[in-house]
Amino acid sequence: MDKEKITARLTEVFRDVFDDEELEIDDATTADDIEAWDSLEHISLIAAVEKAFKMRFTMKEVSGMKNVGEMINILCERAKSADPDTRKNFLFPAPKKRGICLVYIK
């Protein structure tokens, strides 16, 4: 999957998450450029991207992303390292599953 295809697919995800069919993104797009992009929508966006691209971001990747271009670069790198059979279906490998830690705060 090349950068143009990733960007097109990512644009669809952004439009769905932010409920804006006119929304256009580019490498420089940040949360400051999209009015509805707050901390809660950021979580929804990350989850939607992971679902759409069938992969998981690491915490380091999520916290390090400063703009859409960095997200696209991560997706491009994952596409390059994906198994050729799954790459053609746009499936990217997810990291190993981790346990869930639930914390109860009284």
CATH first level? Mainly Alpha
Along the chain, the helix and strand elements come as HHHHH
Our estimate of the beta-strand percent is under 5%
Backbone CA Rg:
15 Å
Query: How many beta-strand runs?
Result: 0
What is the count of structural domains? 1
Shape descriptor reads globular
What is the CATH H-level superfamily? ACP-like
State the end-to-end distance: 47 Å
Largest sheet: number of strands, sense, barrel closure: none
Topology:
Blueprint: H1 3-17, H2 39-53, H3 59-64, H4 68-81, H5 84-87
Quick summary:
With 106 residues, the protein is an all-alpha fold. The chain is 51% helix and 0% strand. It has 5 helices and no strands.
Folded structure, characterized:
The chain is mainly alpha-helical. Helix content is 51%, strand content 0%. It contains five helices and no strands. The longest helix has 15 residues, at 3-17.
Task: Identify the notable features of this structure and list them briefly.
5 helices; mainly alpha; globular; 0% strand; single chain; 106 residues; 51% helix; Non-ribosomal Peptide Synthetase Peptidyl Carrier Protein, Chain A
